[in-house]
Request: fold
Amino acid sequence: MTALIIIAVIVVIIVLMYNSLVAKKNQVDNIFAGIDAVLKKRYNLIPNLVSSVQQYMQHERGILEKVTELRSQAMKPGISDEQKIALDKQITSALGSIMVAVENYPDLKANENVMHLQRSLSEIEAQIAAARRAYNQAVTDYNNAIEMIPTNILANMMHYTRKQVFEITEDERKNVDVGALFKQ
Reply:
């Protein structure tokens, strides 16, 4: 009788660990799908932004072409989550370059359409930042679960591997020069 109770307790523990691992993996997938939706909103905004600024920004043609190319790559079906994360970093950097370049064109900066696009892009970037925080927390919980004892044993048997978190680019780590911003 005691042996049956011990076996039942072990089975219950294994089932709880299994369910916990599956729940954490599904949470990561669910939050990444939310990031995908916000990134899609940003990808849809990019053609409008590029068409609005390209007639003014002939000298920054390379930046605009880069953003368009990165958007095309990001919209391809079947790319991995790691590729999406890498492309997101590049698009974020390129869009930042466009917004800095807009500051050099007073007519463009005052354009109502460009101002609306900048506000929309700013809102989407805030949504992406919030989604990244939620995703990184879910990935951290998941990675902890698959690396800690005793769930790591079950995670290895289920072939679960570490997930990559969103990290900011080197440019985003630099301090903002507030004095330069007010001089513009």
About this structure: The first helix runs from residue 2 to 53. The radius of gyration is 23 Å. The chain has eight helices and no strands. The mean pLDDT is 87.
